[in-house]
Amino acid sequence: MDFKPSPERQILFDTLKKYFENEYSLSDRNIAAHSDLGYSKKAWEAMRDLGILESLIDPELDGFGGTALDISTVFEALGRGLVVEPFLEVGILAAKVLSRGNDAQKSLVKKILENECLPILAHSETDTEYSKSFVETKLSVEADGSYKISGTKRMIKHASEATHFLVTCRNTGDASSEEGISIACIPTDREGIKIDSFATIDGGRVSDLTFTNASISSEELVGELGMSYSIVSHAIDTGILAICSEALGIMERIKELTLEYLKTRKQFGVPIGKFQAIQHRMAQLLIEIEQARSSVINATIYFGDETEREKTISAAKFSIGKIGTLVAEESIQLHGGMGMTWEYDLGHYAKRLVLIDHEFGDEDFHLQKYISL
Amino acid sequence: MDLNFTKEQENFQIEVRSFLNDNLEPQVVEKVKNGIPITKEDSERWHQKLNEKGWLAGTWPKQYGGQEWDVVEKFIFEEECGSAGAPRIVPFGVGMLAPVLMKFGSQKQRDYWLPRMLTGEDWWCQGYSEPGSGSDLASLKTSAVRDGDYYIVNGQKTWTTFAQHANMIFCLVRTSNEGKPQEGISFILIDMNSPGIEVRPIITLDGSHEVNEIFFSDVKVPVKNLVGEENKGWTYAKYLLTHERTGNANVAVSKRKIQKLKKLADDAKKNEQPLSNDPMFASRLAQIEIDLQNLEITNLRTLASVENGEAPGAESSIIKILGSEIEQDIDNLTRKSLGKRAFVNEPDALSTGYNGAEVFPKAAAYASGKYFNHRKKSIYAGSNEIQKNIISKLMLNL
Predict the structure, then answer these.
(1) Do A262 and B398 touch (CB under 8 A)?
(2) Is B330 in a helix, a strand, or coil?
(3) Of these four, A57, A103, B146, B266, which has the most CB atoms within 10 Å of its CB?
(4) Are B273 and B347 part of one and the same domain?
(5) CB-based contacts of A18: which residues, under 8 Å, 6+ apart?
């Protein structure tokens, strides 16, 4: 038995960790994260030069990674840095979908690596419906064999600068049916697309996208008509693994910040970490974070196993949701007033950690899913 | 990352499984699986079978009759025993005193006491806690005063598990009141049949008799029964406690209990549906199951770090807290799942010779009793609050 990452992955993690500590200033990050764009193009390009995207993408598409372990390693490091740039949206969700498409679509993955395109998956439709198969956006077949799509996609992150949308849509079946789901890969300047974007609490911009009879050619479908649920399902599962790992990195960083604070902040003449009431809360956090890490390791181990993947992914997302919120709330409490300030790093980590529970299904959703599987 | 057992480890697992299959007595397994206390004779027969195989003290060095199991082999053995419903090896001799004798005892003591643990000639109990010294163990007062070739022991020990079965006790006693409390403690071995010893049962809230209090009045103990040096006992006691706290994950036992709970919930009805379909129940159960899966990995991570030569520090405290809480959660939900039947308390209904009315479901015979009895798990072996103190000190450096 050995739980250590391979030497190569350890080097990758250490390199990224050092880079974020030295080069990715949190105050610059916060300015960019809450700007109109929602991230920093300069930081995005600097991080691309480190090979982060390549480490998320399979060798056959010009990357050098793409396994569950690679993704988990990289996203834990991204979490430590509180990176807001669109690695999840582009490097995982879009790349995973496009890698299952035709040659032209696969070549878009290579173009991602060359910084020539920024495709974004447009899937979620309602704010509280987390099911992976929930799609109402309508795909209609025209007389000439082409298609049109109409419908609304909500809370699509980093959509405003996208070059392509990968839009899930359906031509048959009920709103939650796995049958009948297609994915259309279209340039964002296609007629009939409206984008309304919003600022977010944790950084980055989100958009609601309205499609009104946007036309699609048959070459623009990813996978076969009505048969693409498994593509989007696998991409989202990969996204869940990625943000669970991101949450681990955030929790480790929060643990460091909080411990440092407990050792330096003095009240009644002693560091507050000397008080048992504080020590036990902190010890409990450490225990919970270890359990969260174990849940992510479990999901990583079973990621390639078709029968166990969804169950272990749901167990991990549930664990991360429950523990993440606890860690965020407790660390703010342990910091007292300092935890409430914009200036101090902690609050920004805590916000992202809590909001991760709102992505791809929250703890309640995944507990129910776990029960149903 | 590689989570697989080696070929040798897999073969060992198969060997343990088949040994258990061939040697466990079904009526004892039935008791273990229902949480009913087993008798001294049940334990002794099982110890003897294990000893014949050389597995009673698998982690011991070969020269003393052990197999020199590493942490993974110990884990495999314990997990298989847990799944199969084997009686737990009574730990006080082979698991707790033996490591202390091997590290700190004299050659004479090792040669005399270790073989007797294997043959079952001695049944050991542990004399640590006192009425005024629980979590603050170092404040203990039971005194041993040197008088020629003897120590004269006076005082009281409490919460002594299975003292009613034991013929020997290892004790922490005060031999000095100088300096810090920790610096005046010695570790001695006392014959329970010595004049001046009185054992009184403590009946726990579920009505069972596991623990006792022991009174010492001018008990004469030969000086040769001192382990190591006088006033160094605290070091030996702490060493023993690290052994006491390993192997507390109880993952296999908890998994077995969850399977049993699922069966109970399938058979019980709520709102004219199987209880297992009730969303509130299903949610409680699934959360425990996920916690246990996470603990399984946390435990394996600790084992792997020990296997790779990193000493376990406070990780055993993390495991102790999680293992005890999860087991308590299962016992709690089991009690709830029985509804009104949880009032029943007929632990004897599973023993041979019981001639009262049949309890149905059988698990109800001792479910509430076991729930109350198992509140001890977060109290004994260093209360979970003490474990958090250890984590704060050793892992958080607070």
Answers:
(1) yes
(2) helix
(3) A57
(4) yes
(5) none
Global confidence as pTM = 0.92
pLDDT at position B246 is 61
Cβ distance B187 to B172 under 8 Å? Answer: yes
Torsion of CA B238, B241, B247, B253, to 10 degrees: -160
- Expressed as residue numbers, the domain containing B48 is 7-89
A190: DSSP letter: S
- What values do phi and psi take at B225, rounded to 5? -90, 5
* pLDDT, tens digit (0-9, with 9 covering 90-100), for A191-236: 999 999 999 999 999 999 999 999 999 999 999 999 999 999 999 9
Does any domain span residue B100?
Answer: no
Give the other-Cβ count within 10 Å of A190's Cβ.
17
- Is B99 within the bounds of a domain? no
Share of chain A above pLDDT 90, in %: 95
Contacts of A271 in chain B (CB under 8 A): 398
Residue the block writes with tokens 């050619």? A217
Q: Measuring CA to CA, which residue among B301, B326, B322, B325 is closest to residue B312?
A: B301
Q: Which residues contact A58 (CB under 8 A, 6 or more apart)?
A: A65, A66, A99
What was the ipTM of the complex prediction? 0.90
B4 contact residues in A (CB cutoff 8 A): 1
The verdict on a CB contact (< 8 Å) between B388 and A318 is no
Do both B196 and B73 map to the same domain?
A: no
**Cβ contact A3–B301 (<8 Å):** yes
Long-range contacts of B107-116 (CB under 8 A, 24+ apart): B108/B224, B109/B189, B109/B224, B109/B227, B110/B64, B113/B189, B114/B60, B114/B64, B114/B65, B115/B64, B115/B65
Per-residue model confidence as pLDDT tens digits over A156-176: 999 999 999 999 999 999 999
Q: Which residues of chain B have pLDDT under 70?
A: 243-247, 311-312
Q: Are A237 and A304 in contact (CB under 8 A)?
A: no
The domain boundary, picked from B212, B237, B262, lies at B237
